[in-house]
Specification:
By secondary structure, this protein is of the alpha/beta class. Helices cover 55% and strands 8% of the residues.
């Protein structure tokens, strides 16, 4: 199969066919891309033309060639301080259709393309492809409980209280997060809004920066990033900090750029090495911290919060179906 590359180094979509669905069929295809050049050579050839964010991905792969095999797209993005979308663009610039095909190509080149290694790269050492559903459930439960307990043990409650006070006192609260952390940001924004906090969540860096520049000393801003190194989140919180806002970071890395920007840094548990889809345990830890902030913020304005929660419940009540009426069993006297 012949692939034509544009001047930017990105394959011309019209020159290639739809990728095979079978991973085994994709492996030889990765060897044919770019006239058989290795992935390392393709990265080197395009390195000078890469934007800064893509260059950071190249740095990670150069320093740790197995990273794409052992990390999810979100993990690699966090490690490089960029977004999952940028990782996808990086893969396409090398001639791959996306991250999955890129991982297969890397695994093939480093001799780790067998099914068992691929499973461990995605699911971790605690879970196997032959495990029964009950064992998987208990394994996941144990890992998640461990993550929650670790987060709870490491939290500085005085810092959490100060963050909650800042949220309730602020005229405006911005919450920044990208990817999975963006989901957490939207969830937290929705909860705060129900108790009367003027909160807004931002995942798009352009919109987030536009809001951040309007912050002042009467505002608060929260950045959520597991690694604390996601470039977009760091940029948005940095802008809010420069504008005078009280800043809070939620991350597992207290030495990260995000934590360094914040007036208060709230720590979550570090991802486990045994569960590869770290988003699972990460999100539980983040949600625990956000739930605690939410309840403490509601306590600060208990009367108003209770009234607003009741009003919002009444507003949506007509849109909920009533439970079915109980029908007595005619056989029972």
């Amino acid at each position: 199969m012949r692939i034509v590359f544009s001047a930017t180094g990105i394959p011309d979509e019209s020159s290639r066919s739809r990728p095979p669905n079978n991973l085994e069929a994709m492996v030889p295809r990765t060897r044919d891309i770019a006239n058989g050049l290795t992935i390392a050579r393709r990265i080197a050839d395009r390195r000078r033309a890469m934007p800064a964010a893509m260059s950071r991905i190249a740095d990670v792969v150069a320093q740790y060639p197995a990273a794409p095999v052992e990390m999810t797209i979100t993990e690699l993005a966090d490690r490089a301080g960029t977004s999952a979308a940028t990782v996808t663009r990086f893969c396409r610039a090398l001639g791959f259709d996306g991250y999955t095909q890129f991982r297969v190509g890397v695994a093939t080149e480093i001799g780790r393309g067998d099914a068992e290694e691929s499973w461990q790269a995605d699911m971790g050492r605690e879970l196997s492809a032959s495990d029964e559903p009950g064992k998987i459930l208990q394994t996941l439960l144990g890992l998640h409980v461990e993550s929650l307990q670790s987060t709870a043990a490491g939290l500085d409650l005085d810092a959490v209280l100060r963050a909650a006070d800042a949220i309730t006192a602020a005229r405006h609260v911005d919450i920044y997060g990208v990817g999975g952390s963006g989901v957490m940001a939207r969830e937290f924004q929705s909860r705060l809004y129900r108790i009367g906090v003027n909160a807004h969540s931002w995942s798009d860096v352009h919109e987030g920066l536009t809001s951040a520049v309007l912050q002042d000393q009467a505002s608060a801003a929260i950045g959520i990033s597991s690694t604390g190194r996601t470039e977009e989140t760091v940029q948005m919180l940095s802008q809010a900090h420069s504008a005078g806002a009280f800043t809070v970071a939620i991350t597992h890395d207290s030495d990260s750029p995000l934590a360094a920007l914040a007036d208060i840094s709230l720590a979550t548990a570090e991802p486990t090495d045994y569960l590869r889809p770290d988003d699972l345990s990460i999100k539980h830890s983040q949600l625990l911290v956000l739930d605690l902030l939410y309840v403490l913020a509601a306590q600060q304005t208990f009367g108003e919060a209770a009234t607003r929660l009741a009003a919002s419940a009444m507003a949506v009540a007509p849109h909920r179906r009533a439970p079915r009426a109980h029908r007595p069993d005619p056989s029972v006297p």
